[in-house]
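Closing statement on the L6N33NVT sub-project.
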Amino acid sequence: MAKNESNSDSQGTISRRDMLKTAGVGGIGVLIGASGLGGLMSITESKASSTGAKEVVSYYGKHQAGITTKTQNNVYFIALDVTTSKKEDLVKLFKEWTLAAALMSEGKPVGELSSNEFLPPKDTGEAAGLSASNLTITFGVGPSLFVKDNQDRFGLKQKQPKELADLPKFPLDALEEEWSGGDLCIQACADDLQVAFHAVRNLIRIARGKAILKWAQPGFQRTKHADAKEGTPRNLFGFKDGTVNPDVKNENQVNEQVWVQPGDGPNWLAGGSYLVVRRIQMFIEVWDRTNLKEQEATFGRYRDSGAALGQKDEFEKLDLKHKHANGSYSIPGDSHTRLSHGNGSEQILRRAFSYSNGMDPKTGSFDAGLLFLCFQRTPSKQFIPIQKRLSEMDKLNEYTSHRGSAMFACLPGTKQGGFIGETLFN
Ligand SMILES: C=CC1=C(C)c2cc3[nH]c(cc4nc(cc5[nH]c(cc1n2)c(C)c5CCC(=O)O)C(CCC(=O)O)=C4C)c(C)c3C=C
Ligand SMILES: [Fe+2]
């Protein structure tokens, strides 16, 4: 935050830094009583402000944030397993998560930072003084929340959409249980990794006794500081990744491709979206020994400009018929671009992030790759047919391995006073 900017936003809300000061950490020293956060919020909400909300993505709305939101620099993605067997615990959890997520999205702590020295603070504190950094928190439910080991765990079996099912096994899948599945998921995206981590950490803390972490994967893209022009980010193979995507500003397109529509399935999911996650390892050492011509033939695009082979501009409409003088196609038949595009009828909203988890102890190489996250209205007509084509003959498969996989239904959004999941649980 710039030195002369106020910490408060236009709604009279207050940042983590102001909250710290109010709580006495920054020196002002107001005692917070047993009324805790509720009391504190009533003090702070009346605070007027002169500047607009900075780096805040509004939490409440028809759809959850973090889907058509402009992609942030970082993600912290987690899958959880539910440990409670009581539906009312789940409802309570989603109510608490909603309030906490709304606060954190505004750059506020989830509870008082230091009101009682004999108790652990409600908020873990590492985001104190940090801006909201465009934090978005997106919640999803997996097929196993509905039925696990043939058990209708929470009386929700009748509400399970047909589309919310385990993905089929694709050729070359090398999936590991430790990176797959989950009853619930949380995608926290922010322009600051510490802010994203703080969000999931506090949400897991709130879930204590009700749900546990199953797997977690942070991811990154180039920062907006490093690329002031905010061009298409490059993946760890050095190629621009994210060029062709539905236009999130076009309401017709997102209704067609991304948001589940009333009548598509059970009504509780209308306004939500299906998320497919693939944790794809990329063999960067092998790639780095591959010549540029081969690399470009693998993607069917030029590394430098991102344009399709035989074409000039990154965003030019694909010309799959373009041929070399010798009559062969400029964009090879086994290239990632030709196969993922198909006949253009299937589209997904990709929101992928690179990851780098140090060294893979089994091989001594980097454990690095792509946390492939994509949103869609109907997985059986979007991700599944695309991935079927790719898994059968994509040249990229020589350099990648799908190690993790999961599917979630991201719930519709909610209004202030409501809670995420209300349409499913009520
Ligand atoms: C099943 C869906 C897809 C998987 C899995 C996937 C993996 C994957 N992709 C890249 C890099 C690039 N992908 C590009 C385009 C592209 N990829 C998919 C789908 C999957 N990719 C689609 C639908 C598209 C767009 C197709 C089109 O209509 O043109 C590109 C080209 C530039 C771009 O448009 O983003 C790159 C580069 C990697 C590295 C990867 C797995 C590690
Ligand atoms: Fe791709």
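Residues 336, 340 surround fe (ii) ion (ligand 2) (CB under 6 Å). With this model delivered, the sub-project is considered complete and its resources will be redirected to Aim 3.
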